[in-house]
Amino acid sequence: MYNALIALLGCVNLIAFVLFGIDKQKAVHGKWRIPESVLILTAICGGGIGAYLGMRIFHHKTRKPLFAFGVPLVALAEYAVLAYAFANHVI
Questions:
Q1: CA 2, 74, 37, 22 torsion: positive or negative?
Q2: Domain span at residue 48?
Q3: Which of 8, 40, 9 has its CA nearest to residue 23?
Q4: pTM as predicted
Q5: ∠ at Cα 15 (11, 18), nearest 5°?
Q6: pLDDT one digit per residue (tens) for the chain, 91 residues
């Protein structure tokens, strides 16, 4: 059970991270962009940590309030739930 959950969350976080990188490159080159709703939804669906790292590493969407405050809150909530679950053997 642990391995499947960790693998799933790892994949979702990797996808969120990669989406932020792709969207940044598209923004730089003036191409079609990934909708903000997709980026936020990916963060909410378990990719908060990956989305936050993507924001910071690629310097992308850091000035938009929804991303500047929302993604770190989602990442913090995700981390807190995981820490609680693993510490208390809930999962």
A1: negative
A2: 2-87
A3: 40
A4: 0.89
A5: 135
A6: 678 888 999 999 999 999 999 999 999 999 999 999 999 999 999 999 999 999 999 999 989 999 999 999 999 999 998 899 889 887 6
